[in-house]
Amino acid sequence: MPRPQPGPFGPAPPARGGAGLGRRPPIGRGLGPGPGPAPGPAPGLRPAGSPGAAAPAELLLSALAVRIVRRLSAPGPPPGPPAAAAMPGLGVCIVGSGNWGSAISKIVGRNVCHSGRFSPAVRLWVFEETVGGRKLSDIINQDHENVKYLPGHKLPPNVVAVPDVVAAVEEADVLVFVLPHQFIAPTCAQMVGHLKPGAFGISLIKGVDEGPGGLKLISDLIREKLSIEVSVLMGANIANEVAEEKFCETTIGCKNPEHGQIYKELFQTPNFRVTVVEDCDTVEICGALKNVVAVGAGFCDGLGFGDNTKAAVIRLGLMEMVAFAKLFCRGPVAVATFLESCGVADLIATCYGGRNRRVAEAFVRSGKTIEELEREMLNGQKLQGPQTAAEVYKVLTQKEMVDKFPLFVTVYQICYEGKSVQRFIECLQQHPEHV
Ligand SMILES: NC(=O)c1ccc[n+]([C@@H]2O[C@H](COP(=O)([O-])OP(=O)(O)OC[C@H]3O[C@@H](n4cnc5c(N)ncnc54)[C@H](O)[C@@H]3O)[C@@H](O)[C@H]2O)c1
């Protein structure tokens, strides 16, 4: 349990309203499953993986998807009446089709069919690449599988891959951003001036960007570039497990209760339980910082330490996350948010299962650089932890608080300054938490 003030490492940083446990009830609590889909298959939809012929709804959606693909790939302006006439309801676009974007498209694709609130076709922006001699967007639209980033999982037929980012977003009311954070700024730049009035978004992106004053949240970057309301979704959500429909929880940070309800309807399933809270910045910063801690956990695995050490890394990492959030976030930081899926649960999952941990372990065992291992081990996927450590280090240097965050700082120094990985254990031994 986090200790009461003052902060985890001696005097608390300038007051940001650090709250005690249970200070603020999550705004999604007490809503029950809400109007989201009831457990079990929706009428007219075949449950995932069940044998037998496609249900009529699925066939209809498939036909609809084919029509949309034809319209979007036709040269010149799309013919016929405005799409809204044919497809009432909120249009949803998923901006990004990597491992997580593809997994979440399985959920969103199904949920839009259960609810009268959304248009039945979901657009999935695909950064086009060739896989086995075919365009990835064609593979997704014809075979309903992202064979590169989520192989082995069928996507719902109403999820339509669109390689042109403007065509993908221009009719969307709800934008789901799910790209590696290094690509978000150039992608938003292409979208400027092409969004529907009143569109709003949610970021599933874990990481931070570099800002003039130090570190910048990805949601802030999107808000600034596109002038839209942006919420966030973070949690212990390893994409492959979500795609396999293994039970998990997630946290949505959203200040607008109406949007919170829409997101709950869009994302919640019996095996993907959503809690909505208000302190978005804390939710988002958790999602970025846990990747730095996971790199540390990977170092310990590579050095041959055991579960006790890993638990200590998780605990000390969590304390640094809380302290950093209080230092950095604009609004109040409710410590209770760290007990949501976006906090402690995501930290545990990432320190045991994530790619940052895996690559960091290989870094110790192989002696190769992080860049080499990213290329060799991740098949085009991106690491977030080392880059986030570098952004965090800049902020701490500017604020002259490097000595208060030894775990974050040592991860940075090992990844970028050639510090010996053995020194990671020393940083744990001398951690200010024990002084
Ligand atoms: N994978 C997970 O388990 C998981 C879970 C939760 C959150 N996240 C977060 O979701 C975000 C997206 O991660 P992911 O795992 O879906 O991605 P990924 O690493 O699996 O895939 C990389 C993606 O980047 C795209 N890409 C490559 N070059 C590009 C460019 N120049 N411009 C635009 N796009 C380009 C690729 O086409 C691909 O879609 C990240 O912030 C990640 O931290 C991932």
TrEMBL record:
InterPro entries to which the protein is assigned, alphabetical: 6-PGluconate_DH-like_C_sf, 6PGD_dom2, G3P_DH_NAD-dep, G3P_DH_NAD-dep_C, G3P_DH_NAD-dep_euk, G3P_DH_NAD-dep_N, NAD(P)-bd_dom_sf
Taxonomic superkingdom: Eukaryota
SUPFAM superfamilies: 6-phosphogluconate dehydrogenase C-terminal domain-like, NAD(P)-binding Rossmann-fold domains
Subcellular location, principal: cytoplasm
GO annotation terms (biological process): carbohydrate metabolic process; glycerol-3-phosphate catabolic process; glycerol-3-phosphate metabolic process
Region ranges (Disordered): 1-52
EC number: 1.1.1.8
Record domain Glycerol-3-phosphate dehydrogenase NAD-dependent C-terminal: where: 279-425
The UniProt record lists the keyword Oxidoreductase: yes
Protein's UniProt keywords contain Electron transport: no
Domain Glycerol-3-phosphate dehydrogenase NAD-dependent N-terminal: 92-258
Subcellular location: Cytoplasm
GO MF: glycerol-3-phosphate dehydrogenase (NAD+) activity; glycerol-3-phosphate dehydrogenase [NAD(P)+] activity; NAD binding; protein homodimerization activity
Keywords: Cytoplasm, NAD, Oxidoreductase
Class of this enzyme: oxidoreductase
GO cellular component: cytosol
Residue spans of biased composition, Pro residues class: 1-14, 34-44
Family from the record: Belongs to the NAD-dependent glycerol-3-phosphate dehydrogenase family.
Protein name: Glycerol-3-phosphate dehydrogenase [NAD(+)]
Organism: Ornithorhynchus anatinus (Duckbill platypus)
